[in-house]
Amino acid sequence: MDLNRIIQALKGTIDPKLRIAAENELNQSYKIINFAPSLLRIIVSDHVEFPVRQAAAIYLKNMVTQYWPDREPPPGEAVFPFNIHENDRQQIRDNIVEGIIRSPDLVRVQLTMCLRAIIKYDFPGHWPAVVDKIDYYLQSQSSGSWLGSLLCLYQLVKTYE
């Protein structure tokens, strides 16, 4: 997936004159393998403008909440509805905790919503390692990682409220 192309489309969603064309570009791309992990890479990149990172975070949150759960085709239809590919899911699982830790607050909020949905559907069956990952960052000597890891822990615990 070409990151620059995604960045330009996300940037276009901010400009009212380019919004419709940019949204069409994103709607044609979101089913391509590596699109969702590319959004996460854009979100955590310090080299991308903040409004673009925020747009990517919102788009990823919407994708995860809508397309993360495995869905069956409606009765009488043979075509399965779109789900985020398992390889993409694994890349997101592998990097979202670090993304939450490294992101500014306005982006972190969107990523914690993603994490909540992922934990809801994947913990513990597909993602038992999330506990160890959160524990690792909570025990870190770097106080900068504590807030993000506590937010992750809260999302994990909130699942069982």
CATH architecture: Alpha Horseshoe
What count of helical segments does DSSP give? 8
CATH topology: Leucine-rich Repeat Variant
Q: Sketch the major β-sheet.
A: none
Helical content class: 55-70%
Shape: globular
Distance between the termini: 38 Å
Q: Could you tell me the strand content as a percent range? A: under 5%
- Beta strands, count: 0
What would you say this structure looks like, in words?
The relative contact order is 0.11. The chain is mostly helical and 161 residues long. It is globular, with a radius of gyration of 16 Å. It has helices at 3-14, 19-29, 35-44, 50-67, 86-102, 105-122, 130-138, 146-158. It has one domain (3-158): Leucine-rich Repeat Variant (Alpha Horseshoe). Helix 3 (35-44) runs parallel beside helix 5. Helix content is 67%, strand content 0%.
Question: Could you give a short description of this structure?
Answer:
GO terms for molecular function: small GTPase binding. The chain has 161 residues and is mainly alpha-helical. It contains 8 helices and no strands.
Set down the secondary structure blueprint:
Elements: H1 3-14, H2 19-29, H3 35-44, H4 50-67, H5 86-102, H6 105-122, H7 130-138, H8 146-158
Helix pairs in contact: 1-2, 1-4, 3-4, 3-5, 4-6, 5-6, 5-8, 6-8, 7-8
Notable traits:
Leucine-rich Repeat Variant; 161 residues; single chain; ARM-like; transport; mainly alpha
